[in-house]
Design goal:
Elements lengths: L9 E8 L3 H12 L5 E4 L8 H4 L32 H14 L6 E2 L4 E7 L4 E6 L3 E9 L22 E3 L13 E5 L3 H11 L4 E5 L6 E2 L8 H9 L1 H23 L6 H14 L3 H6 L12 E2 L3 H5 L4 E4 L3 E5 L2 E4 L4 E3 L2 E4 L14 E2 L6 H4 L19 E3 L12 H22 L6 E4 L1 H15 L3 H4 L21 H7 L8 E4 L19 H10 L11
Parallel strand pairs: 1-2, 1-6, 2-3, 4-17, 6-18, 7-16, 8-9, 8-16, 9-12, 10-11
Antiparallel strand pairs: 4-5, 5-6, 13-14, 14-15, 19-20
Helix pairs in contact: 1-11, 5-6, 11-14, 14-15
Bound molecules: NADP nicotinamide-adenine-dinucleotide phosphate.
């Protein structure tokens, strides 16, 4: 590591911000590619990201573990259930970090307070809560769902008991025998409500919008099956490929043919009818928007929990708190001893965006103020040289494993580093996305998002920002994304050298033209995909 010559601080080739699924994945792939000069800055005391932060009762993943795990670190014979719980997923990530020798690169307790691009030295200056770093390349792996939101509620300060968010569970709060109010009915709530109903004296569920809920086909994986996966890894790979392939097929319905989701809607209605006999409750639990518009929730325990006599579903948001009394938007009054907010995350306005300042002196948040979050291939942003975002804008998924997207972006990261090296010695050159390439990519995204179920399904969701633009989801298959980021297209980037703080002017060929990967994407959208090996 070379010294920055500016007080305490060290220089690295790559600084990764965050040690969750994406940051840890980056560390593994960097290590395996022979990059030794990198650091992972993590504000928490351990790895795991969202799987370390979310410890609410019932916390689990609604994507099968065989698919929700790195293809390069298979764990098939060790998952105890088909859909793993938070502890098992966290333990998996810790085991991967150990097995891959990532420890020496990890710096815990380092919250990144500021990242500023230095155009003269072509590096990022990173100020953490402990020390300063400089890095030729910064990888932002801070997670799209890491900052919990508690909505402003009149009188909340007057509440006479514990109040916390599902992602910051207060394990010191006594829930046994208490009346617990849960605000929200998203993916977190459907998991924690059944667990709470098993211990609390009463649950008051404030539901602003009913979710579509399908049964979750979870099961314990028998020892014989695990042994099979262990002894014959090809069987686990085949099962993973099957899980992947089925989800890829369904993606087309989400992105191009929302009417084709009607079968899922019928299944979800049958699930509701079968589990909830009371017509009044059933009607309150019936969504009035197309299935898939919000995340489809998987739970076989949610409806059975709601029909219990000590669980009350209030079909309105929480409007006001007065002492222990809670008043709903429809005027319903109830009492509670504890309030749990399962109200989601700041997905379209990530706080880290306020801390990253690019080459023109603007923060990411300022850059995105008009028009929302925009990146090139979900990964790089014009005006932010040598910054790669993992799970950046429009890389989220509605129905399959995010790990697939992360792994595709890691290919892009390694190719980016290869290209940088090809262009010059460390510190002598940087790359910045051409604004025209970013515009072109986002125009394509917007056009495709316009016909997805997320935009047309008649719901409001965190997928779309305050202006209604979908800045979070990828409107295609994971295979398509993989192809789009397999290689860095040099034509989409301008080269920077220390002498020239400004990028070279855009040329005719780069401006607003269809790039090679976009052309591939178009070809696939038109029904002519090349066969690509499944990510097993
Ligand atoms: P969420 O999906 O954003 O759900 C938030 C809930 O809070 C919604 O029901 C929302 O109602 C409600 N809400 C928000 N503000 C409110 C207010 N002011 N008053 C009343 N209700 C309010 O959050 P989440 O459940 O934590 O899930 C977030 C994401 O995390 C998921 O979509 C998923 O991507 C991920 N996640 C994944 C898993 C998994 O198993 N893989 C598990 C948990 C979470 P409206 O619907 O009316 O907006």
């Amino acid at each position: 590591m070379r010294s920055t010559g500016r007080g305490p601080g060290r220089h690295v080739r790559v600084a990764v911000v965050g040690a969750g699924f994406s940051g840890l994945g980056a560390a593994v792939r960097l290590g395996r590619a022979g990059v030794r000069d990198f650091v992972v800055l993590e504000r928490a005391p351990g790895v795991g990201g969202t799987w370390r932060d979310n410890t609410y009762p019932g916390c689990a993943c609604d994507v099968p573990s065989l698919l929700y795990s790195y293809s390069f670190a298979p764990h098939a014979g060790r998952w105890p259930r088909t859909f793993s719980g938070q502890r098992d997923i966290r333990a998996y990530l810790e085991a991967v970090a150990d097995a891959e020798g990532i420890g020496p690169h990890l710096r815990f307790g380092r919250e990144v307070l500021e990242m500023r691009w230095d155009s003269a030295r072509l590096h990022w200056e990173i100020t953490t809560s402990r020390e300063r770093w400089t890095a030729d390349v910064a990888v932002c792996a801070a997670g799209p769902l890491s900052e919990p939101v508690i909505p402003p509620i009149a009188g909340l300060d007057s509440f006479l008991g514990p109040v916390f968010h599902s992602a910051r569970w207060d394990h010191t709060a006594e829930l046994r025998g208490k009346r617990v109010a849960v605000i929200g009915t998203g993916a977190s709530a459907v998991q924690l409500v059944p667990a709470l109903a098993a211990t609390a004296a009463g649950v008051r569920l404030f539901q602003r919008t009913p979710p579509w809920v399908l049964p979750r086909p979870d099961r314990r994986v028998p020892a014989a099956e695990r042994l099979l996966y262990e002894r014959l890894p090809a069987t686990a790979a085949a099962r993973r490929a099957l899980l992947w392939g089925v989800r890829e097929l369904v993606t087309r319905a989400f992105t191009r043919l929302p009417n084709a989701l009607a079968g899922y809607e019928a299944l979800a209605r049958a699930h509701l009818r079968w589990a909830v006999r009371d017509p009044g409750l059933r009607s309150r639990l019936t969504p009035d928007y197309r299935i898939g518009c919000k995340r489809i929730l998987l739970s076989s325990a949610y409806y059975p929990a709601l029909v219990q006599p000590h669980v009350e579903t209030i079909a309105a948001s929480l409007a006001e708190v007065r002492g222990r009394r809670l008043i709903a938007g429809d005027g319903t009054r109830t009492e509670a001893d504890v309030i749990v907010f399962a109200t989601g995350f700041r997905a379209t306005e990530p706080p880290i965006a306020h801390r990253v300042t690019g080459s023109d002196g603007l923060t990411l948040a300022e850059t995105w103020r008009d028009g929302g979050m925009r990146a090139l291939r979900g990964t790089s942003v014009a005006g932010f040289p040598n910054l790669l975002m993992l799970l950046g804008p429009n890389t989220g998924l509605g129905n399959t494993s995010l790990v697939l997207m992360i792994e595709s972006q890691l290919d892009y990261l390694l190719d980016y580093l290869r290209l940088l090296e090809e262009y010059g010695a460390a510190g002598s050159v940087a790359l910045t996305p051409r604004p025209a390439a970013v515009r072109s990519w986002n125009a394509r995204l917007d056009a495709r998002l316009g016909r997805t179920v997320w935009n047309t399904g008649g719901c409001a969701s965190w997928y779309r920002d305050a202006e209604g633009r979908n800045t979070t989801l990828w409107p295609g298959s994971t295979r398509e994304f993989r192809r789009a980021v397999r290689r860095v297209d040099p034509g989409e980037y301008a080269r920077l050298t220390p002498a020239e703080a400004e990028p070279e002017p855009e040329t005719e060929t780069e401006a607003e033209t269809e790039t090679e990967a976009e052309a591939e994407t178009e070809a696939e959208a038109d029904g002519g995909p090349e066969p690509v090996a499944p990510p097993v």
